[in-house]
């Protein structure tokens, strides 16, 4: 068994050596980005060849890599970047540091004052000692009032600066998240993103405010304390400081460890919250399947994994504080013994020894504070790295790029030989050689079996994703050349599962207004009426001001769909996408809303996706989608008139199902 362990260890080291050689070899030639994929594959092959577990592989993320040669550079860069977040608050922080210096100096005058007082009290030859004592205490009172005010200023200024730093960071992060393309969100859970906005941003802010304040205060106190110790007795200082390098070394190793573990822990918690958020927001499904206990157990297992990681952190913490505490005790005993000898031999007064011991105590508490500062700073860097990952990410579909024509588009859309797979499932070809023309002012219906890619066509038209091959053009301009904001402002969409936000019915309808669009109450009322929202809102006590709840949970599916239709109407778009827009309505409401939608579609380019073929009878063109491309195309009558055909089959099947 032992031999096997040693052999495994040897093979592991060998693998690491080869990989470390390859890493250095590749990274020095400026090949980093180009060769990382190759390097990862090669690493995997080396490890497989010598039967080793997978090692963390090198991942190119702009400027950060796992290769050991890059580590130091990255840390310094991250540290500088973290501190540079405080730039916007430099004046406030300068004032806070001023207060901090004053309060630290005053705090550090206490041991000196105490020593002086003791020497005055014990000086039997001086008959003025009572007068001196009174003067001395009166001066001290004044000094301490200033110290208290400075302390107040320090804490208030640092904390208020931190609030603004965290606010700005959260804002940048939120904006950056919202600007990412849809594919990015497909692979991230909202719970994870919320955790970055909440916990990570807080941790970064804390390491720059309370922590920075305490750290700087500790630095001031260590410097002042050491200076006063040297002034009081250089020999005793020498004894007191001989353990400092040792404690410093432990602190550096510990800090690095904490940084790594913090990042791992935060990633772990992000996964946990992602899962919890998904369950909590779909709690009805959990209840219907009676999975309360099952989900609680899953959550417990995930939490236990995190706790196991936390134990490692707790162990490192305990070792660090145990070792530093022991070093402090060694200093105290040495100073007491040697200092006592100096007092007995009349080289030092009792007052001086007392001041010295107090200075040594303050300094060692401050050194402890410094190590805390270093730990928190490293935690902040761990959190900051997770934030940089998002802030540094290059958007695949940048919103501020592209042409913004001043005219409204005519609305001719051409899908030309489009090929597409979702980035999350690159092996699953959804569209292949997909060609379709949506004519201005006409309605084109897209039909096909479930999962054939109908909704995908709509998302490509909205440019939520870009095709892998081929071209989608609006009025003969490639969508990739147009500003996504301009494009989307001319498209209205009503989906199968309309998404509403917390707020009133009115707020949700007005959400459809384009930025800078003119709003008139009559326009709003027209949209409400045409979408038949007034039919149900008039029966609610607060009418259009009724709250819809989170994601619209307080409304029925059909009511939500009507609000979504009104939201699309108020946008007055050139292109309209109706993806099963009336699927949640009863047959009476469907007929009413369908009439409204037919009315709305007039004069616009309309792409209708429908399963119920009766709803697309009036479409100018019907395209049947199968295997990623259009297999049949024509008007309802033309497709029905064919002897055989997929559309005819579909109509027959639906008629049969309706009758049976
Ligand atoms: N975000 C995504 N990431 C990966 N695959 C996806 C994603 N969205 C959809 N798909 C897959 O793409 C394929 C086409 O989906 P799409 O929603 O376009 O079908 P559909 O024809 O609209 O289906 P339905 O009629 O049931 O609404 C399906 O196989 C689906 O599983």
Bound ions, cofactors and other small molecules, one mention each: adenosine-5'-triphosphate
Mean pLDDT over the full residue set = 78
Largest sheet: 6 strands, mixed
**The CATH topology of the largest domain, please?**
ABC transporter transmembrane region fold
Helical content band: 55-70%
* Tally of separate domains: 3
Annotation, overall tally of beta strands: 10
Task: Report the CATH C-level class of the largest domain.
Answer: Mainly Alpha
What is the subunit arrangement here? single chain
- Strands of the biggest beta sheet: in what spatial order? 6-7-8-3-9-10
Shape: elongated
Low-confidence stretches: 1-74
**Tally of individual helices:** 22
Q: How widely separated are the two ends? A: 71 Å
**Which radius of gyration do the C-alpha atoms yield?**
35 Å
GO molecular function: ABC-type oligopeptide transporter activity; ATP binding; ATP hydrolysis activity; identical protein binding; metal ion binding
Main location: mitochondrion
InterPro entries: AAA+_ATPase, ABC1_TM_dom, ABC1_TM_sf, ABC_transporter-like_ATP-bd, ABC_transporter-like_CS, P-loop_NTPase, Type_1_exporter
Domain ABC transmembrane type-1: 94-379
């Amino acid at each position: 068994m032992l031999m096997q362990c040693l052999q495994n260890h040897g093979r592991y080291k060998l693998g690491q050596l080869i990989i470390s050689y390859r890493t250095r070899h590749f990274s020095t030639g400026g090949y980093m980005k180009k060769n990382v994929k190759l390097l990862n594959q090669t690493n995997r092959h080396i490890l497989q060849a010598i039967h080793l577990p997978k090692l963390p592989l090198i991942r190119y993320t702009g400027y950060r890599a796992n290769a050991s040669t890059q580590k130091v550079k990255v840390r310094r860069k991250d540290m500088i970047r973290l501190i540079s977040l405080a730039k916007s608050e430099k004046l406030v922080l300068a004032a806070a540091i001023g207060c901090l210096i004053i309060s630290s100096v005053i705090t550090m005058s206490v041991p000196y004052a105490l020593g002086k007082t003791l020497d005055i009290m014990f000086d039997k030859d001086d008959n003025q000692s009572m007068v001196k004592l009174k003067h001395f205490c009166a001066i001290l009172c004044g000094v301490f009032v200033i110290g208290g005010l400075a302390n107040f200023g320090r804490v208030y200024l640092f904390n208020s600066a931190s609030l603004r730093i965290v606010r700005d960071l959260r804002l940048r992060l939120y904006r950056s998240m919202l600007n990412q393309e849809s594919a990015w969100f497909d692979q991230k859970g909202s719970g994870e993103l919320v955790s970055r906005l909440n916990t990570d941003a807080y941790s970064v802010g804390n390491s720059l405010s309370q922590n920075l304040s305490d750290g700087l205060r500790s630095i001031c106190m260590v410097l002042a304390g050491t200076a006063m110790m040297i002034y009081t007795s250089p020999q005793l200082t020498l004894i007191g400081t001989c353990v400092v390098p040792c404690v410093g070394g432990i602190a550096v190793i510990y800090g690095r460890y904490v940084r790594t573990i913090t990042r791992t822990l935060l990633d772990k918690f992000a996964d946990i919250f992602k899962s919890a958020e998904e369950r909590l927001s779909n709690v009805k499904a959990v209840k219907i399947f009676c999975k309360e206990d099952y989900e609680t157990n899953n959550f417990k297992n995930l939490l236990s994994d995190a706790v196991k990681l936390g134990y490692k952190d707790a162990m490192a913490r305990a070792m660090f504080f145990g070792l530093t505490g022991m070093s402090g005790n060694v200093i105290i005993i040495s100073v007491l013994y040697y200092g006592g000898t100096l007092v007995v031999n009349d080289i030092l007064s009792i007052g001086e020894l007392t001041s010295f011991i107090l200075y040594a105590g303050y300094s060692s508490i401050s050194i402890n504070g410094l190590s805390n500062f270093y730990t928190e700073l490293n935690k902040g860097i761990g959190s900051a790295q997770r934030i940089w990952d998002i802030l540094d990410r290059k958007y695949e579909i940048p919103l501020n790029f592209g042409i913004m024509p001043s005219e409204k588009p005519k609305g001719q859309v051409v899908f030309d030989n489009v090929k597409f797979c979702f980035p999350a499932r690159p092996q699953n070809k959804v569209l292949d050689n997909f060609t379709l023309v949506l004519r201005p002012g006409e309605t084109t219906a897209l039909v096909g079996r479930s999962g054939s890619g109908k909704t995908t066509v709509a998302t490509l038209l909205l440019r939520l994703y870009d095709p892998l091959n081929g071209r989608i053009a609006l009025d003969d301009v490639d969508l990739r050349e147009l500003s996504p904001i301009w494009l989307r402002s001319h498209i209205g969409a009503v989906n199968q599962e309309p998404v509403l936000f917390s707020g009133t019915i009115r707020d949700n309808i007005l959400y459809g207004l384009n930025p800078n669009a003119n709003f008139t109450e009559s326009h709003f009322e027209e949209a409400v009426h045409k979408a038949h929202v007034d039919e149900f809102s008039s029966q609610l006590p607060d009418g259009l001001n009724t709250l819809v709840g989170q994601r619209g949970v307080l409304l029925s599916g059909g009511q939500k769909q009507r609000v979504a239709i009104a939201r699309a109407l108020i946008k007055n778009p050139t292109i309209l996408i109706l993806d099963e827009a009336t699927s949640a309505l009863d047959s009476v409401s469907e007929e009413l809303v369908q009439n409204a939608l037919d009315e709305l579609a007039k004069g616009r380019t309309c792409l209708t996706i429908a399963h119920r073929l009766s709803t697309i009878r009036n479409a100018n063109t019907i395209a049947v989608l199968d295997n990623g491309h259009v297999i049949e195309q024509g008007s309802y009558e033309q497709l029905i008139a064919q002897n055989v055909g997929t559309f005819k089959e579909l109509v027959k099947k639906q008629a049969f199902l309706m009758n049976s």
